[in-house]
Amino acid sequence: LSRHNNCYIANIVKCRPPNNREPSPSECDACIGYLRAQIAILQPDFILCVGRIAAHSLLRLSEPISRLRGRNFDFEGIPVRVTFHPSALLRDTALKRPAWEDLKQLRSLMESKASKESGAPKESGAPKESGAPKEGRASKEGKMTDTDQISKLEE
After folding, report:
1. Which secondary-structure segment (H or E) carries 111?
2. Distance between CA 17 and CA 1 in Å, rounded?
3. Is 0.85 topped by the overall pTM?
4. What is the pLDDT of residue 98?
5. pLDDT given for residue 86 in this prediction
6. Cα-based angle 65, 69, 131 (whole degrees, multiple of 5)
7. What's the gap between Cα 44 and its chain centre?
8. pLDDT digits over 86-122, tens only?
């Protein structure tokens, strides 16, 4: 994955809460519309919720993250997976292995979709691009990048 051509990182809240505290539910609710618009423009094939706040806000669930991990979810037709926030991995190194397993499961899901779309048997290695890019995705032919699309949204 590369932030330059096929991966986009977005946050639930669009500004940092004071003292780096967790965002309140009202702050999440105030910003979720922007995230929904970003998702609508980018049309991602997959979403990875990184952390409890992201998972709870996007999926409208309240279960502990330990119960959300390893399960398939759906956000407006887009497959969603959940894993720990990187700061949790820094606080508790025992979470690194489960987080790695989550990423491997996401990769497997991506490879499976790419294989189905191409009709080819599944291969190991990096996920393959699936044909022509969706509108809003960066491409070598000069389509707008994800950042350009978001900038247009903010205008």
Report:
1. helix 96-118
2. 29
3. no
4. 97
5. 94
6. 130
7. 8
8. 999 999 999 999 999 999 999 999 999 888 888 765 4
Query: d(Cα 53, Cα 11) in Å, to the nearest integer?
Result: 10
SS3 132: coil
What is the strand order of the sheet 47-50 is part of? 47-50, 78-83, 73-75
**Around Cβ 41, how many Cβ atoms within 10 Å?**
18
Listed in order, strand segments (DSSP E) in the chain are: 47-50, 73-75, 78-83
* Per-residue pLDDT tens digits for 138-151: 433 444 454 555 55
| 31 neighbors 12 (Cβ within 8 angstroms) | yes
Q: How many CA atoms lie within 13 A of 131 on its CB side?
A: 11
Q: Smallest Cα–Cα separation from 58: which of 33, 41, 40? A: 33
The Cα 123–Cα 107 span in angstroms is: 12
